[in-house]
Amino acid sequence: MSLKPASSAQLPRLARPALVLLLGLGGAVGCSAYPTLRDEPINCSADSDYEFDPSTVSTNMRCDRDSTPDCGQSAPSLAPIEGGGRCGSNAALEISLVHNNDWGAHCPFTSFIVNYGTSDAGTSTSLPRDESAWEGLSFWARAPGNVSKGFTVYLDDANTTVMDINYTPGGHDKIYNAADGGLGGSTINAAVDPATNQIISGSAVASRQPDETGNNKGNSYYVVMLVTSEWVFYTIPWKQFTQQPYPNRAPNSILTQTGDVPGTALLTNQLYGLTIGPPKEAPFDLWLDQVTFYRKKGHGPDAGPDALAAVPDAGLDAPAAGADAGPDAPAAGADTEPDVAAADADVDAEPDAAQM
């Protein structure tokens, strides 16, 4: 039996968006209850059209996490890649956590800032990374097994980094002595359990000043990601990094300096931190390899943010997955099922991250 397709003119007006969505999800009706990401064979040439910053991000990382009683964590470390490695790479950074059910966890690269100098006071100070000659962040990634495939990538620049010498000097933000999200005070907005009249853990958020960070009130730039069980090469253009619409979103009345990349205020020439934000509650086992900064070949050493306008997005658009990433991260609400798919992500992935 064959079905005669109806023309768009024959469809009710309200039915057309549903048809477009159905076609966008691969017309999965009849073969699957919901769309999934299909694992493809590793494409070792996926990164061949790019050149990379030689000062590749270090694999040194720590994970700060909540104290849920049954949570577990293995310290992030280099682990051997089974089966003879991936395209000549024999080891990758593995981040493994489970059951962080309160505020979750976040995992910063501890050696992200590679340049050091001396302040006027003679104290060793950290200088930001200048990655303005590159087009964005890139890495190989996989999350094998029955674990969450979603996580968040955070970047911090001078507008989201503190000036306090005890943290990372050079940033524009401050730590105010306002009541924090877990404490009482007039600046608190929180959900209260009516049975106990107590603040529900993780729900309290203190108000923010235009240049405030720390005390759970930072506003890092972020992109949400969804990966597969097999290795895929991902590129994230600068323009995809955004902030939550809090009072300390740049630019504002105090933080007036912004970058040159259309669509984001990220200061790509003053980067201070790179952090991975796992989702809450779900088991998490993420592998990362060759985390660095990229640009399309042929732009030369002076290629910078303005090159984005001339470079088409590489590969298919990878779906996004929300992720909750700890006290300094905006809530993004990760779905923890491995087969979650989202239709509207702007994170660029190579064609081997195919959708069904």
Written account of the structure:
The chain has 356 residues and is mainly beta. It has 2 domains: 38-174 and 211-356, Jelly Rolls; 177-208, no CATH class. The chain has 1 helix and 19 strands. The strands form 5 sheets. Strands 1, 3, 4, 8, 15, 17, 18 and 19 form an 8-stranded antiparallel beta sheet that branches. It has a 5-stranded antiparallel beta sheet with strand order 2-5-16-9-14, with no helix packed on it. Strands 6-7 form a two-stranded antiparallel sheet. β6 (115-118) and β7 (124-127) form a beta hairpin. The longest helix is centred in the first third of the chain and has 9 residues, at 16-24. The chain is globular.
Mean pLDDT comes to 71
- The percent range for strand residues is 25-35%
Going by CATH, what is the homologous superfamily of the largest domain? Galactose-binding lectin
Q: Return the CATH topology of the largest domain.
A: Jelly Rolls
Sequence of secondary-structure elements? HEEEEEEEEEEEEEEEEEEE
Rg (C-alpha, Å): 22 Å
CATH class of the largest domain: Mainly Beta
